[in-house]
Write a structure and sequence with these properties.
By secondary structure, the chain is of the alpha/beta class. It contains eight helices and five strands. Helix 6 packs across helix 7. It starts with a strand and ends in a 20-residue tail after the last helix.
């Protein structure tokens, strides 16, 4: 399942809910990139500069981080959060990983996303949650990421589900579960120890 939408539309929040209830592996390209930055590697330093400028990290870097994370994940049902962010990334993702079964588009106004990001920045201390970077991230989203949604609507029309997120998170989550009803059949059952066979 691919989650798309602008910065601050609520992708991470909804993914957390689905992971809790259905056991998916949640892969956020933003989190993967921030972990690389935190590692202090040369690659991380380059990514840090690009992210602070609100620009996209090179495609091969993001794809490789995603593939590594997918390989390490225990659950092989994935929520891909915030990727692909450009049409060429969608093509490359399909070529190297595969086509998504579902594309969830979280729809939110720029005004509300800006308000949410500024509020988050006060608590998170994230370097990219400041007004200057937010404006640049919006420009990148409109120019490069929004066309990805249009691409999937044409290439995978039955897979695309659009959900408004200008309401409370629990209301959005109810809509998400409804949209995924055909794909997400039931919550992951609790693990029960196997009974010994005494026959």
């Amino acid at each position: 399942i691919v989650f798309l939408g602008g910065p601050g539309c609520g992708k991470g929040t909804q993914c957390e809910e689905l992971v809790r209830d259905f056991g998916y592996s949640h892969l956020s390209t933003g989190d993967l990139l921030r972990a690389e930055v935190a590692s202090g590697s040369e690659l991380g330093k380059q990514c840090d500069t690009l992210m602070k400028e609100g620009k996209l990290v090179p495609l091969d870097v993001t794809i490789n981080l995603l593939k590594q994370a997918m390989g390490k994940a225990k659950c092989k049902r994935f929520l891909i959060d915030g990727f692909p962010r450009a049409v060429d990334q969608a093509h490359e993702f399909e070529a190297k990983v595969g086509k998504p079964d579902v594309v969830l588009c979280l729809d939110c106004s720029l005004e509300l996303m800006e308000k949410r990001l500024l509020q988050r920045g006060k608590a998170s201390g994230r370097a990219d949650d400041n007004i200057e970077t937010i404006k640049k991230r919006f420009e990148t989203f409109l120019a490069e990421s929004k066309p990805v949604i249009d691409y999937y609507r044409k290439s995978l029309p039955k897979a695309v589900k659009t959900i408004p997120t200008d309401k409370m998170p629990d209301e959005v989550y109810a809509d998400v579960k409804t949209a995924l009803k055909a794909t997400v059949e039931k919550p992951v059952p609790p693990k029960v120890p196997a009974k010994a066979d005494f026959r």
